[in-house]
Design goal:
Helix content is about 45%, strand content about 15%. It has about 525 residues and is an alpha/beta fold. The protein has four domains: about 190 residues, Beta-Lactamase, CATH 3.30.450.40; about 170 residues, Rossmann fold; about 90 residues, Orthogonal Bundle (Helicase, Ruva Protein, domain 3), CATH 1.10.8.60; about 60 residues, Arc Repressor Mutant, subunit A (Orthogonal Bundle). A six-stranded antiparallel β-sheet has the order 3-2-1-6-5-4, sandwiched between helices. Strand 10 and strand 11 form a beta hairpin. Helix 1 runs antiparallel to helix 6.
Length: about 525
């Protein structure tokens, strides 16, 4: 598969050996380059080639851990595709977005970075949690994997603490190695979304934290059966999405999936919605109507907010679950039904049972296979991938080009408590896209007021002053300056002189700032005209 790239590979090795840095390469480093070239040229499977490359690097270099992260061409998410010295769980945690942490920054800028001591670097996230920063003294090198000028991923290495000259030499070596891996990484990148560890990701799931891994495994376990499932979790955590995934992955996938929100209807209508009614059963019942149980026959019935059902409806629901028969409202005929039941609630049903507000026998019927969905505030690693997923979704829906999150916005999203969970995050990203106008960078002013001045998440809200540092001081100051200039242009309707005056700048200096941040004052004037 890789023989077509032989000449380029050996040319790269030759340049490394015979160029200006010849004296910096030891014999084992030369051997490493030739062995890598051979692996890349002869190994058919791309994943095997990347893992073999890391094994060779561990053999010849002072490498404690190593990882190859690639950019998903579908979602834009950055994730580890090959690793050395990491457990599978640690590798699955290695997920980033552009600009986030060292790896995200290297992929965004296309420039290598070298950290002499990661414990002293605020940008270093330790996302995989594979390092004990209190005990280990680790240096970190990360270089982009480039092909035809495009960044397809990054190669990163942990090593014991080293001086700046040693790290600089090894960074140059890793840059050569990343060039060798370019074609393999690109071919792996093309197929990476088709070989996910969980096919459920293809049905709308985003996020791979440990808590969600448990949920994925439970879905895979229960989906092939007809077992009744109880989904528990706060509002907005994606319970209906999980219910649909269970249905789609099960034997009833070709049959109907009927959802019903039990809290959305009054008691006098919920019975009719569930079981249907005969003509004349009540005022306004001008014709026979099938209920959700009949409509879902052979398929799945999803009852959301089941904890809101009245005692009368609970008793009737219990009978259907026990006997698989029901009678339409106002009718006499018994109807048999074959339905899989999936229920969901954001309430503590066990506590409701103890208080006498929910039938104990019905609770045991529903709680056959419970799945607990974690709140978003406990899915820290998934917040930015989810935000980018929704940002891309709404940008496409509104006919916009690529939009991205600023560093300041990343920090705000990670500090917020998200009481509305994933649904709230989705709404925030939809609003941000609408607020962007012609801009492509989501800035703090595009977010709701509730996210401003928020500090850090806990189970209840915003507490301590410990924040999430994303970016150097200079980078954050530049983003702030850009946001202030954009706001001034918005307020002035694109009048350059008025905007400059409001900021205490001359038109010349204002023009230089616009050129620096690639802004055009006419764009804001056109926007005001349309408004």
């Amino acid at each position: 598969m890789h023989k077509m790239h032989t000449d380029g590979i050996h040319n790269t090795v030759a340049l490394a050996v015979h160029g200006e840095e010849t004296d910096a390469f030891r014999e084992d480093q030369l051997r490493l380059l030739y062995e890598l070239a051979n692996v890349v040229n002869t190994t058919i499977d791309e994943a095997q080639a990347l893992n073999a490359a890391l094994q060779l690097m561990a053999k010849h270099l002072h490498m404690m851990r190593g990882a190859i992260t690639l950019v998903s061409p579908d979602s834009g998410e950055i994730r580890i595709e090959a690793a050395y010295g990491l457990t599978p769980v640690e590798a699955r945690r290695g997920r980033y977005v552009r600009g986030e942490g060292i790896t995200g920054r290297v992929i965004e800028t296309g420039r290598p970075m070298c950290i002499s001591d990661v414990s002293e670097e605020p940008l270093f996230l330790n996302r995989t949690r594979s390092r004990d920063l209190g005990k280990e003294t680790v240096s970190f090198i990360c270089v982009p994997i480039l092909l035809n000028g495009q960044v397809v991923g990054a190669l990163s290495v942990d090593r014991l603490l080293a001086d700046e000259d040693t790290l600089a030499n090894e960074m140059r070596l890793l840059t050569v190695i990343s060039t060798l891996l370019g074609h393999v990484a690109l071919e792996t990148q093309v197929h990476m979304d088709a070989v996910q560890p969980h096919p459920l990701r293809l049905r709308g799931f985003v996020g791979n934290c440990e808590a969600m891994q448990v949920v994925y495994e439970q879905i895979v376990q229960v989906a092939p059966s007809n077992t009744t499932v109880l989904l528990q979790g706060e509002s907005g955590t994606g319970k209906e999405l999980v219910a649909r995934a269970i249905h789609a992955a099960g034997p009833r996938a070709s049959k109907p999936f009927i959802p019903l929100n039990c809290a959305a209807l009054p008691e006098n209508l919920i019975e009719s919605e569930l079981f249907g009614h005969e003509r004349g059963a009540f005022t306004g019942a001008s014709a026979m109507r099938k209920g959700c149980f009949e409509l879902a026959d052979g398929g799945t019935l999803f009852l959301d907010e089941v904890g809101e059902l009245s005692p009368l409806i609970q008793a009737k629901l219990l009978r259907v679950l026990q006997e698989r028969v029901f009678v339409r409202l106002g009718g006499m005929e018994t109807h048999c039904v074959d339905v899989r039941i999936i229920t969901a609630t954001n309430r503590d049903l066990e506590e409701m049972v103890q208080q006498g507000n929910f039938r104990r026998d019905l609770y045991y019927r529903l709680n056959v296979f419970p799945i607990v969905l974690p709140p978003l505030r406990s899915r820290t690693d998934d917040i930015l991938p989810l935000a980018n997923h929704f940002l891309k979704k709404f940008a496409q829906a509104n006919g916009r080009g690529e939009a991205r999150l600023s560093l300041a916005v990343m920090g705000m999203l990670q500090r917020y408590a998200w009481p509305g969970n994933v649904r709230e995050l989705e709404n925030v990203m939809e609003r941000a896209v609408l607020m962007l106008g012609r801009e492509t960078l989501v800035l703090p002013q595009h977010l709701p007021r509730t996210l401003h001045n928020c500090q850090i998440r806990d189970g209840k809200g915003c507490l301590s002053s410990r924040g999430v540092v994303l970016g150097t001081l200079q980078e954050q100051l530049e983003e702030l300056e850009r946001a202030i200039i954009v706001e001034a242009l918005e307020c002035s309707g694109g009048q350059l002189g008025r905007a400059a005056q409001s900021l205490g700048l001359t038109e010349r200096v204002m023009g230089l700032r616009l050129r620096k941040y690639e802004l055009n004052y006419k764009m804001f004037r056109a926007r005001r005209t349309k408004a």
